[in-house]
Amino acid sequence: MKPILETCFSPSLLHLYDLNDRIVVIIDVFRATSTMAAVLHHGAHAILPVADVDECIRLGQEIPNSITAGERDGKVAPGLQYGNSPLEYPREFIEGKTMVLTTTNGTRLLHQCHSAEQIITGSFLNLGAVCDYLIQQQKNVLLACASWKDRYNLEDSLFAGAVYDQIGMHFRMNCDSTRAAAHLYRQAKSDLYGFIQDSSHFHRLSAYGLQYDMEYCCKVDQHNVLIQLQEENGQSVLKVPAV
Ligand code: MLT
Question: Which atom of ligand 1 is nearest to the CA of 201?
Fold first, then answer.
């Protein structure tokens, strides 16, 4: 029998899903999971996702060759060295480093999904790698949208719709959130960036002049790496799995 694929539109709905037998795909298109794809594609050693800013600063002081990064409400959080932009991390800068990262919604959702059988992260920048992996694994999948402070957002559902559009035939699906996401994606896919410009987080980040970030986050397969949560030295880190 084919495995199941479902979509959760908000962390506040996570309690409705059993994560134990699932691959959970964490989705935060604007911008956490897009930044993760850029950073790891450019050769960072790992990303350590942490829930709060103080812990981020502390770990940044402890871990050799690390940087602290992240945001609160879309702006670089005071005390952190760098922000949450996928364009901030060229290979010349990030290669070999460990990024300690804390964001408003994305890293929070990662922690909320700790009971999942496996966790990977997804964005348009690594859509192909996510789809290939899910087909190959043949396990139940939950597409988990980070949303904005528990409120529905368009960009994460568009990504869920894109995944279903590409690989839905390999799964059983009876989930109206997935259906809605797929309808939305089909409407938007010929001009994702144009479509997304009337969305709450686009308006929020545009107010800080971050349109280039969002345009970049709409590029498909620009940083096509699989990103998986793994254990390393007693810590949960995001890495590109060794082949
Ligand atoms: C988040 O995790 O909430 C985001 O990625 C926010 C952002 O930096 O746009």
Answer: 9
